[in-house]
């Protein structure tokens, strides 16, 4: 028998390739079989789980918190001074935040994060770019969105376990009781006395504690009204509304961004204590924060005033008549955070930005000196931007520098009218010798009135100040 022929070199290579392909095929088949077996086992296990009884629980508990609650609030639950029962009360509690601004922003975020059961958010305004330096619940993307909606979105994104209600029409005597009635605690995060008195009265007549704070400039204050034996309400401390000119607002006085942040967080702390039933609530005490000194001070407040019209022995403000109470007449101020617009000069002593611009243009065309413009804003506002021909004398220095003002008029080439005007307020305006400019047209009116008392009779006010100039003539101008 003839021996088998040895394969040639090319045949050997062919057989090796076939063997490699067969090994690959075998490996693939093994993988497919293993996958199929795993799927079979998983399906069998699922069927057993669906059809059979649930596995016995290996733990016992007698509280209302779900596994998600426990995980989310674990750091509260670990706290010996807070713990399970306080967290349960917090989760069942409700708080109304009136104002979704500098105070309301951090308060709402921390209360949502802490697990308050229901959060009510009140506002009437929309998000503005100038809000964002302190109202951190809002975002650039939500500029122009209603503040209550924007704040609700942020709270929902932070904690979907919290129920969030929005009250979009703001807070007014007609809706105050209906809104407050649905909550356990109220947080005053507004910035005007008219709404503060209304919130106070609504809380008093409905028996709700009121966590109140304020932040202006670099200072903050915090207290809890209407809570506990003999604790005063806002009216007990302030039976008369402060005069409008004595009310500092962030829009006028400025505010350091983190200061309302700190006060809003402290309001959230008081609410958590109130709802959780722990700690000493800041009733009958006022916490004062001086940010520049880095100092907190607590002072004792007086008790309830027996003659208080809201919480005294014979209150005249009741559930029945609160809606008809005229809070604007009582405070003399509109219920907004914006500065009031003064109107102390007759039209004859006022010009519009367009009129002033016309005078400036005609002077430039005819080669005359530009009209004298006096800017009475504080130095920090003047240095931010001002009209090119403006002279700066702050309002507070007018009396001391009145001769400088008269020199300014004499030097403006408007000699035919400088110092010679004789019109009294209410008479026909002489040709202006001096145009007085301020931020919004309030101080400029007061300045013109004061200059007239000092013998400068031909000064006029520029209506609406730099804000109006920017709005009506030059939108590129940076205004504050
Ligand atoms: Zn009172």
Provide an overview of this structure:
The longest helix has 43 residues, at 9-51. The N and C termini lie far apart (111 Å). The chain is α/β, with parallel strands linked by helices. The protein folds into 2 domains: 69-331, Rossmann fold (3-Layer(aba) Sandwich), CATH 3.40.50; 347-472, 3-Layer(aba) Sandwich (Oxidized Rhodanese, domain 1), CATH 3.40.250. It has 17 helices and 13 strands. The structure holds zinc ion. Zinc ion (ZN) binds next to helix 9.
CATH class annotation of the largest domain: Alpha Beta
Over the alpha carbons, how many angstroms does the gyration radius reach? 35 Å
Provide the helix percentage.
25-40%
Q: Which ranges are low-confidence, i.e. pLDDT below 50, for 5 or more consecutive residues?
A: 414-430
- Give me the side-by-side strand order of the main sheet: 3-2-1-4-5-6-7-8
CATH architecture of the largest domain: 3-Layer(aba) Sandwich
Bound molecules: zinc ion
Number of strands: 13
Pfam family, one: Rhodanese
Pathway: Cofactor biosynthesis; molybdopterin biosynthesis; tRNA modification; 5-methoxycarbonylmethyl-2-thiouridine-tRNA biosynthesis
EC number: 2.7.7.80, 2.8.1.11
Biased composition (Low complexity): 42-51
């Amino acid at each position: 028998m003839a021996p088998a022929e040895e394969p040639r070199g090319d045949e050997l290579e062919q057989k090796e390739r076939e063997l490699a392909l067969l090994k690959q095929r075998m490996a693939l088949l093994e993988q497919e079989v293993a996958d199929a077996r795993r799927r079979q086992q998983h399906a069998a296990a699922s069927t057993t789980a669906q059809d059979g009884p649930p596995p016995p629980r290996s733990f016992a508990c007698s509280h209302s918190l779900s596994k998600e609650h426990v995980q989310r609030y674990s750091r509260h639950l670990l706290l010996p001074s807070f713990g399970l029962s306080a967290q349960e009360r917090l989760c069942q509690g409700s708080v109304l935040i009136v104002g979704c601004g500098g105070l309301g922003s951090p308060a709402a975020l921390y209360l949502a994060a802490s697990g308050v059961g229901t959060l009510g958010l009140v506002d009437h305004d929309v998000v503005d770019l100038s809000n964002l330096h302190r109202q951190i619940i809002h975002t650039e993307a939500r500029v122009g969105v209603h503040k209550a909606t924007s704040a609700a979105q942020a709270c929902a994104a932070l904690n979907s376990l919290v129920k969030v209600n929005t009250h979009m029409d703001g807070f007014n005597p007609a809706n105050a009781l209906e809104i407050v009635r649905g909550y356990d605690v109220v947080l005053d995060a507004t910035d005007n006395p008219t709404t503060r008195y209304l919130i106070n009265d609504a809380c008093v007549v409905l028996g709700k504690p009121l966590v109140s704070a304020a932040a202006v400039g670099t200072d903050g204050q915090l207290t809890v009204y209407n809570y506990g034996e003999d604790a005063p309400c806002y009216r007990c401390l302030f039976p008369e509304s402060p005069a409008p000119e004595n009310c500092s607002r962030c829009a006028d006085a400025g505010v350091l961004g983190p200061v309302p942040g700190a006060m809003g967080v402290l309001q959230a702390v008081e609410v958590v204590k109130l709802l959780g039933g722990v700690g000493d609530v800041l009733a009958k005490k006022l916490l004062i924060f001086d940010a520049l000194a880095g100092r907190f001070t607590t002072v004792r407040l007086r008790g309830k005033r027996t003659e208080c019209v809201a919480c005294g022995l014979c209150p005249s403000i009741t559930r029945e008549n609160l809606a008809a109470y005229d809070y604007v007449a009582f405070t003399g101020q509109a219920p907004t955070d914006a500065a009031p617009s003064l109107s102390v000069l007759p039209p004859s002593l006022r010009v519009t930005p367009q009129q002033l611009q016309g005078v400036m243009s005609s002077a430039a065309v005819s080669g005359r000196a530009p009209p004298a413009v006096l800017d009475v804003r504080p130095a920090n506002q003047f240095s931010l931007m001002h009209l090119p021909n403006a002279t700066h004398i702050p309002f507070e220095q007018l009396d001391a520098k009145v001769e400088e003002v008269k020199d300014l008029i004499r030097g403006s080439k408007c000699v035919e009218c400088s110092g010679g005007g004789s019109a009294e307020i209410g008479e026909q305006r002489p040709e202006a010798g001096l145009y007085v400019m301020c931020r919004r047209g309030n101080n400029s009116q007061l300045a013109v009135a004061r200059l007239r008392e000092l013998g400068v009779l031909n000064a006029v006010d520029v209506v609406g100040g730099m804000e109006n100039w920017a709005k009506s003539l030059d939108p590129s101008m940076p205004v504050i």
